[in-house]
Amino acid sequence: MGKIVLNLDARMAERKVSLNQLAEQVGITNVNLSKIKNNHVTALRFSTLAAICEALDCQPGDLLAYLPEDG
Q1: Is 3 helix (H, G, I), strand (E, B) or coil?
Q2: Is the predicted pLDDT of residue 71 greater than 80, yes or no?
Q3: 3-67: in CATH 2.40.37.10
Q4: How far is Cα 69 from Cα 34, in angstroms, rounded to an integer?
Q5: In the predicted model, what is the mean pLDDT of residues 20-43?
Q6: For residues 1 and 15, is the Cβ–Cβ distance under 8 A?
Q7: Long-range interactions of 37-43: CB distance < 8 A, separation 24+
Q8: Which end of the chain is more exposed for a tag (fewer CB within 10 A), N or C?
Q9: For position 70, what pLDDT does the model report?
Q10: Cα–Cα distance for residue pair 56/59, rounded to 1 Å
Q11: What is the full DSSP assignment across 17-68?
Q12: Whole-structure pTM value
């Protein structure tokens, strides 16, 4: 089975937003946002995803990608 990955770092770079700035805007800790950014999570609340999308002015599909097992 493939996996879902988050491209949060690319979107943050495009928007020139630091980890600290985004964590404050989203209302989560730097540590938790870092785990999300580095794909070290197995679940993500829709409310957190929505807050990230609002802060970065993007859609969930801009942040999520599917990688097949062999990719």
Answers
A1: strand
A2: no
A3: no
A4: 24
A5: 96
A6: no
A7: 37/6, 37/8, 37/9, 37/12, 38/9, 39/5, 39/6
A8: N
A9: 79
A10: 9
A11: --HHHHHHHHTS-HHHHHHHHTT--S---HHHHHHHHHHHT--HHHHEEEE-
A12: 0.91
